[in-house]
Every structure is written in structure tokens, then in C-alpha cells.
Amino acid sequence: MRRTAPCRRLLAAIAALLAAPLLPSAYVIDEGRWPLGSTLTMHLQLGAATGPLSDGATGWNQVVANAMAAWNTHLDLIEFAAVQGSSAPIENRNMVNNVVFDTTVFGRRFDDGVLALTTTWIVDGVRDEANITFNSAVQWNSYRGPQRGSGSATVYDLHRFALHELGHVVGLTHPDQAGQSVAALMNSRVGDPDALQEDDIEGGRAIYGAGVPSIVAFPPRNETADFINRLGALYRDELGSPGFITYVDAEGAGVWVPEYTRYRVGQCAHIEATNRVFLQISDGLLFGVCGLTPEGAIPFPPRNEGVVFMGSLNGLYRDTLGRGTVTSFVDEEGIVVWVMEYLRYRLNGCGHEAAVEKVFMQIRGQGIQPTC
């Protein structure tokens, strides 16, 4: 369950992108993200177990703490922390993350068949509270292996349900309810799997994984900036460009188009690459790439996706950063196409001057040039 407070638009452009799945996988990412670098303090208030638990855990709170530790091994940019036996007020919308047993969720009865529920508060695309309630009307234990019964009743494993609900806290939702078919603890029906599955881990890392170091060396920013300045002069003096109104200045284009390209050649999908650039702009953090670039000629993203990125960047500069208009002799499509061509030559062995000349030959109608 998610409760979303009225948006104040501060991070609206970023939140719209983050609402979509980031990589071609079955996991599904829900709306909103915790601030990067956050410690998610969960107040564990489940009370004492009435008897020994099958997996040796010392109590209900310890079971949830163990599930939090399991998630922490896969998350780089946020971290769970437990307050065992907390006495914090159990309330909805008090900026405290409560974890409790109850027969209701803040006064609302559980729907039939619902064993646990997570309520999340999101403001302007940013998560700032999440509460987990386990249904105390059913039987619980903590164990591994297939689900168990006691007579005609099922005895539910709190550990795997805690992993599932903490996945909601992280920002994942049910892949099976989104038309996906995959082995995942995040499916809407928790079954025999008793640990995080590969798809669950990939989903968590898609939101909060720092990535891997890039093995591709991009040219210095000053050289890319020099190329953009010379490109503008060519459009103005040779092509007779009348000038175009934009919100992204030459410096911004020279920084963020290469960053988008760095993520793309580092195996990030379009939406993930865009997300990471936008989070660099908003939070000042530098991410790794999604995977190692294959050997051989370095693959570049399709031009149409680069143009979509540039349009989104222009909207971010206008709507979120509040930048004013600037005049460029190169339109958005030209910036993306020719900066990426310049980078393609550079990453495939060409020096600065050779790359500039090869791009200009293309613009003058002499065809795509061989790399160096």
C-alpha cells in the first residue's frame, strides 16, 4: 500500500522517470526513491515470541533484523538499520518507520488473505516513511524450506514475508501483477522460496546499486566543449543556422550528453542511464556503469534514444532547475547526434582533432568516416 502526499513539483521530472522499470527484467519498480545515502531506521516493535523459533532466531524483532541484513548486502546507496524493541509511537505519518504485529493497519482491517501490508509515504517523488504491519490473526514462525502447516492451518515464515515487505520499503512491487512471470520473492503470493531471488536482487540494485567502474576512458570535458563550440560555428557560418532557443547551454550539453553516453556504452538501458544522469544533477553523486563494455568496436545507443534524453534534459533544466533560455546555433537533435559521433570516434581510437574533422566531413556530406 502506498499513500502519496500532494506533490510540490521539486523533483517531479526525476520522479516521472523513476516510476518505470529501469532495466529489461521482470522486477517492477514502484514510484519514489529514498534519498541516496539514507539510513532507513526501522523501529522493530513486534514483541516477544511465545516460544522458540525454528531457525534459532531470538525473537520476532531479530527475524526482521536478519531480513534487513540480507537486503543490506545488495544495496550500495541506502542501508537498513534496526532499533530493536523500540518504544517509538506507532502512528501513520509521523516520520517513523514502524514494524509491528496487529489485526489492523492503523485502524483499517486487513483484506481477506492479506498477511502483511507496507504503507509508504512519498512527497515530490521522495520516500520519507514506510511502515510494515504483519497480520497477527494468523500463525507465524521463522524457518527455511517449504511453507509449513499445523493441522489444517498454515504456519507462515516471518523471515520470507519480512524480506518481501522490506522489498516494498526499498521500492519494488509485484512482478506477477504486472504481467511478468519470474521466480521472485516479490511476487504477490509468497511461496516456497525462502531467500531473495536473483530478480529481487537485480531490482534492488537497479534502484540503489552503485554499479561497476567503467573500463572506457572518455575524452576530457574541455575537448568535448571545444568540439561543441566549433560545431556551433560550423552551423552558424557554413550551414546558415538561424539559432534555436533551448534551456541547456553548451556547457551542460558537453557534460551530460557524454555522461548519458558513458552509461549507455557501460550497458545501462536508456531509462537507467537517464535516471543516473538526473540523479547526478540533483544529488551530485557519480554512479558506476551497469556492466563492462564488450571488447571490440564500442557500441553506441540509437540516435533516437539520445534525442529523447536531450529532450528530457531540456525539460529538467526548464522545469526543475528553473534555468532561463539560451540561444544555440545547433538544435537538440544536432547536439546529440554529432556529440555522440565525436565520442564514437574518440572511444574507437581517434584523437581530438581527427574526431572533429571526421564529424565535420559527415556534416558536409562526405559520409561516415572510418574510425582510427
What is the number of beta strands?
15
Radius of gyration: 25 Å
Strand order of the largest sheet: 1-8-9-5-3-4
Total discrete domains: 2
Beta-strand percent range: 15-25%
Give the fraction of residues assigned to helices: 25-40%
Q: CATH first level of the largest domain: which class?
A: Alpha Beta
Our count of helices gives 10
Q: Kindly state the mean pLDDT as a whole number?
A: 88
CATH topology of the largest domain: Collagenase (Catalytic Domain)
- End-to-end span in angstroms? 55 Å
CATH arch. level architecture of the largest domain = 3-Layer(aba) Sandwich
CATH H-tier superfamily of the largest domain: Collagenase (Catalytic Domain)
Shape: elongated
Describe the sheet with the most strands.
6 strands, mixed
> Which blocks of ≥5 consecutive residues have pLDDT under 50?
1-24
- The SSE string, one letter per element, is EHEEHEEEEEEEEEHEHHEHHHEHH
Q: In terms of structural class, how would the helical and strand content be classed?
A: alpha/beta
Main features:
372 residues; 15 strands; 2 domains; disordered N terminus; Collagenase (Catalytic Domain); single chain; 6-stranded mixed sheet; 3-stranded mixed sheet; alpha/beta; elongated; 37% helix
Q: Could you explain the architecture of this structure?
A:
The protein is an alpha/beta fold and 372 residues long. It has 2 domains: 2-208, Collagenase (Catalytic Domain) (3-Layer(aba) Sandwich); 221-363, no CATH class. 37% of the residues lie in helices and 17% in strands. The strands form 5 sheets. It has a 6-stranded mixed β-sheet with strand order 1-8-9-5-3-4, with helices on one face. Strands 10-12-11 form a 3-stranded mixed β-sheet. A hairpin with a 2-residue loop joins strand 8 and strand 9. Helix 6 (250-265) crosses helix 7 (270-283), helix 8 (303-320) crosses helix 9 and helix 9 packs across helix 10. The chain is elongated and about 85 Å long. Mean pLDDT is 88; it is low at 1-24.
